[in-house]
Design brief:
It comes from Streptomyces cinerochromogenes. The chain is built from twelve helices and 31 strands. It is α+β, with helices and mostly antiparallel strands and about 575 residues long. The strands form seven sheets. It has an eight-stranded parallel β-barrel, surrounded by five helices. Strands 16-24-17-21-19-20 form a six-stranded antiparallel beta sheet, covered by helices on one side. It has a five-stranded antiparallel beta sheet with strand order 15-25-30-27-28. Strand 19 and strand 20 form a beta hairpin. Helix 9 packs parallel to helix 10. The radius of gyration is 25 Å and the shape is globular.
């Protein structure tokens, strides 16, 4: 068996210096049937290693319930078969533009629990999770014949806290559970981040997108010895709904990569291939500058990241520029590119045949209705991704007064006595038209993604304050949640009827007939906001505000002939909407 270690100035493989040329590829953002192709693309670019996070919330939906943790092991087996090494970043916090930074909502919503600290309630959950997860990682370390050469302790902790005792406890837990691979931390190249996020005796790495020499000089002030590594070379960036599509010039990115390597450093391209946040798992940020206390900025479904291998697995101009740079560090000719997965044979239009209003969907697939004096949050209702219907009565008779939703996170479609009255957000929480009593108010509140970075990590979703009529709280609120996980068992329980006369919100069902199944993108022209499933596979959120205009449909999701489509429209489609259609990519 080979041995990988951290030397005074280099990484060592069986005692000989080696440079890690790694690329980030998240197994959970790529359809499993396409792992092999994407890994082969990384090798063809000139990389010898792949890095992945592990999202805790994906694999533990509820306390004591674990879901396909074995996917981590299957991915690492695919990495070994591809002839690559692996860097694993198990968190427990990962950021990754992923819902809640990978932390389960049931955990961050637990009263009194202080996440990302030595708080015993939090650490007891971490120990339980790591006990499950490390069964997949430990046997696949390099010294046991697997690909894993490094394992991260937490993630960019210096951007969040200063409890280095927490990091020590995590490092000790990893070692006690059998991790013998090199441990490391990663942080921004700033003094306060490195002092808060690094540990004595554990390799410190830095994350940046440019100015490598300055970044490594900062690292050397803190760590005079040890290999230099940029654990996240940000060669692209991610997009927000209603924002601009972000791109980075390929020559500029290649020049920054060249500078890192000229410093004698190892590197991990973030991202080498971004993939897709399937399943509605995209996270969100807070704007407002360095404090991250401003308006919510939800992430789009695509995690293309302007990466060298695009969302569809195709090489970009950046791929070829990076391949040129990396070829100088490869012992021999680079591998050829693997055959591209087949695209869809021909465009295909879906035929929608059934519809059910949101209330009927909620009745069939939602949780139990609860009544409380004040609105319960998503966390209190056990809803992770999805929506909650709140119902409250305005007493009467009384004159019209402003209706305000205090502490709204994130978006509410409001109905008064069954008539749509407007859409409210955190920034615009007051209905335009006053409401007179008596009246019944319904709020269909949607989470647009939990914050994955900054001090507001773990904030609650739903109505977190209350519903005000003038300055008076309206009490006795009824609430019922619809979690996206409820669709995993299908929609047979939903009482579908005929299509509505106009593009009403609700669940639409239909089929699309495919000739030549392969990679496709789904267009939803004229549809406003919601989620889509194809053959039970959730593609993610769509939203007409852009910048993302279509959803990626991996070829393995489709089958020859008839395919089932579900479309959960949460706002209402335009009158001139088009039928959903698949297009080749």
């Amino acid at each position: 068996m080979s041995a990988f270690s951290v030397g005074e100035s280099d990484f060592l493989l069986d005692g000989r210096p080696v440079r890690l040329l790694s690329g980030a590829l998240h197994y959970f953002r790529v359809h499993e049937a396409q792992w092999g192709h994407r890994l082969a693309m990384l090798r063809a670019m000139g990389l010898n290693c792949v890095e992945t996070y592990v999202p805790w919330n994906l694999h533990q939906p509820r306390p004591g319930t674990f879901r396909d943790v074995q996917a981590v092991g299957r991915f690492l087996d695919a990495v070994r078969e591809a002839g690559l090494w692996a860097i694993v970043r198990p968190g427990p916090y990962i950021c990754a533009e992923w819902e809640n930074g990978g932390l389960p909502a049931w955990l961050t919503g637990e009263p009194g629990t202080r996440v990302r600290t030595r708080d015993e309630r939090y650490m007891s959950h971490v120990r339980s999770w790591f006990h499950q997860l490390l069964h997949e990682i430990v046997p696949r370390q390099l010294d046991r014949g697997g690909p894993v050469v490094m394992v991260q302790v937490e993630n960019e902790y210096g951007s969040y806290g200063s409890d280095t005792g927490y990091l020590e406890e995590l490092a000790g837990l990893l070692s006690a559970k059998g991790v013998t691979a090199a441990l490391f931390t990663s942080d921004g190249p700033e003094d306060h981040m490195l002092t808060g996020g690094s540990l004595p005796g554990v390799l410190a790495t830095v994350n940046f997108g440019s100015h490598a020499r300055e970044a490594f000089e900062t690292l050397r002030r803190h760590r005079p010895d040890g290999p230099l590594m940029c654990m996240e070379f940000w060669c692209g960036w991610f997009d927000h709904w209603a924002g601009e599509h972000v791109v980075r010039d390929p020559e500029d990115a290649a020049g920054a990569l060249r500078e890192i390597l000229e410093c004698g450093a190892s590197v991990n391209l973030y991202m080498a291939h971004g993939g897709t946040s399937f399943g509605g798992w995209a996270g969100a940020n807070r704007g407002g500058g360095a404090l991250h206390e401003g308006p919510l900025e939800p992430d789009v479904t695509s995690y293309d990241y302007d990466a060298p291998v695009d969302e569809y697995g195709r090489p970009t101009e950046k791929f070829w520029r990076f391949r040129e740079v990396l070829s100088a560090y490869h012992p021999g000719p680079l591998p050829d590119l693997p055959p591209r997965p087949a695209p869809l044979g021909a465009r295909a239009e879906a035929v929608l045949t059934g519809w059910a209003p949101l209330a009927d969907v909620l009745e069939a697939l939602g949780g139990p209705e609860t009544a409380a004096l004040m609105p319960p949050t998503f966390e209190e209702l056990g809803v992770t991704r999805g929506l909650v219907r709140y119902t409250v009565d305005v007493p009467g008779p009384r004159r019209p007064y402003p209706l305000t939703v205090r502490g709204l996170r994130d978006l509410a479609v409001v109905y008064v006595d069954g008539e749509r009255a407007g859409v409210l957000t955190e920034e615009e929480p007051v209905l335009k038209e006053p409401v007179a009593g008596p009246a019944r108010v319904e709020l269909w509140v949607e989470s647009l993604g939990r914050v994955n970075y900054g001090p507001r990590l773990g904030e609650a979703k739903g109505v977190t304050g209350g519903v005000l009529h003038e300055r008076q709280y309206l009490h006795r609120v009824h609430a019922c949640g619809l979690d996206l996980d409820a669709f995993a068992d299908g929609v047979a329980a939903v009482p579908f009827g005929g299509l509505p006369g106009e593009g009403a919100p609700g669940l639409y069902r239909g089929t699309v007939t495919v000739r030549g199944a392969g990679d496709a993108r789904l267009e939803l022209l004229g549809h406003t906001r919601g989620f889509v499933w194809v053959n039970g596979f959730e593609l993610g959120r769509y939203w007409s505000v852009g910048p993302q205009r279509s959803l990626y449909v991996p070829g393995p999701v489709l089958r020859e002939g008839e395919n089932e489509v579900w479309l959960l429209e949460l706002d209402g489609a335009e009158a001139d909407r088009s039928a959903p259609r698949l297009l080749p990519v």
